[in-house]
Amino acid sequence: MKVKEILTILKGELIIGKDKLNEEVNLIGAADMMSDVLALSKPGMLILTGNTSAQAVRTAIVTDLMGLIFVRGKEIPPETINMAKGSNLIIIKTNNYMYSACGKLYTAGLRGIDE
Amino acid sequence: MSNNQECRLSKYAFIFEDLTAEEIMTKHVSTLTADKKISQAKELMKIKKISGIPIVDDKNLLIGIISIEDIIKALEMGKIEEDIENIMTKNVVSLNKDETLPTIVQKFDKFKFGRFPVVDKNGTLCGILTKVDILHKILDKFNLLYLHDKKRDSILNKELSLITGEKLYREDAEFRHRIDTSDISKAGEGAAILKNFLIKKGINQDIARKVGIAVYEAETNVVIHSKGEGEILCFLKKDKIIVRVIDNGVGIENLDQAMKEGFSTAPDYIREMGFGAGMGIPNMKRFADKLVILSEKNTGTQVELVFFL
C-alpha cells in the first residue's frame, strides 16, 4: 500500500514528506512506548503513535523508521516538527484514535510484523 | 555431574567469589519432620521431583536429611513405613547462608552430595542449594558481568575496557558527547548524533542502528536516573565499536532488578514521554554484542557496550 492510500484511509494530513506519497509501505506497527519502538521496530517501518513528543521523532530517526502517524488529532509541538524536518521521515496526522486507525489500515490489508 | 564439569564450576567460583549461598540457594524448600513416615518422604520426592528433603524440628532447625538413596535402602529393608527419624542422616553437612561460592564448590567436591541445606547461624533452615542452582545463578550473572565491591574501586575510573582490557583514553575517543541531564527532552540526542557520526564514518547502517538504539537507552537512563553528569565516548577499532556511557550520579540501587524486563523506577512524567517501561537495560543487552554495567551507589555508573563489525 502506498503512503497516499494510507492518507486517504485515515483522512490524514501529511505534515512532512510530500516527495514520498508514492512510496510503498511494507512494514507497519503501533506503539506509544518508545522503548518498545527501540526494541521491536524494523528499519523502514511506519509507526502509529499517540506520543507526539520530540522523543518520538528522535526514536524514529535512531531506529531508521519510514515515519510516524500521530493519532487522536493531537497538537504536534513545534520542536517535534522541527526535528522531523531535518530528517528523512514521513509525518502524518490523523483525527482517528489509535484503535480505529489501526483497524482501518488492518482491514485495508496491512498486516503487522508478527503475522 | 562429571568431574570435568566440577572443574569448570571451580573456575567460575573464582570469578564470582562474592556470591553467597543465600543468593544462590532455592528459598522455597520442602521439609518434613522426623516423626513422619519414610513413605511420606518418598511421595513428596515423587510429587516435587526432588532427590532430597531436609528434616527439621518444630522450630525449623535443621536436624537431618533424607535422600533417594535412603529411601531405596528403606525399601530394600522393608522399613518404608517406619519413622524418618530411623533412617535419616543426622550429621548433616550444611552450608551457612554467608558462605561464598569457592567454599561451596569445595564442599561439593569433597562430599560428593547432590545438595546442601543452607542454614543461618542458629541452624535454622533457610534454603537448599544444588549444582543446578549454582549454574543458574552463574548464567544469570553472565547476562551482566558483575564486579563486586572490593574490586570496583580499583576498576571504576580506570581507562581500561571493562570487557577487553584495552586502553581507552578519553582523549583518544573518536566521538565524545556531554549528556545534558538538566533537560529530559534532550535524552537520546547524543545517541542520534553518534549514529549519524558512525554512518559518516562508513559504518554499515544495521550496525549504526544497533549502536544508536543501545546508546539511546543508556543515555536516557543517565538523564532520567543519574542525577549527575554524564558523557558518551565512542572508540572505533578495527573489528569493533566500543561505546562507554558514564556518569557520576547516584548509581543503580539493584542491578538484578534493573536487568529484568518491565522493572522501572521512572516517575510518571517520564512514562508519558514513552520511557520508563523497564526495557532500558534489556534493550541494551538485546542490541549490543557485549555489555558490562558497573555501578556503585553514589559514585556513578559505567556502561560499556561492544559491537562487533
Low-confidence stretches of chain A: none
Strand order of the largest sheet of chain B: 6-7-8-10-9
CATH T-level topology of the largest domain in chain B: Heat Shock Protein 90
Strand content of chain A: 15-25%
CATH architecture of the largest domain in chain B: 2-Layer Sandwich
Which CATH top level class of chain A fits?
Alpha Beta
Number of domains of chain A: 1
Helix count from the secondary structure assignment of chain A: 5
Q: Considering the protein shown, what is the CATH homologous superfamily of the largest domain in chain B?
A: Histidine kinase-like ATPase, C-terminal domain
Q: How would you classify the helix and strand content of chain A by structural class?
A: alpha/beta
Total strands of chain B: 10
Helical stretch tally of chain B = 12
Poorly predicted residue ranges of chain B? 146-156
User: Helix fraction of chain A?
Assistant: 25-40%
- Specify the structural class of chain B: alpha+beta
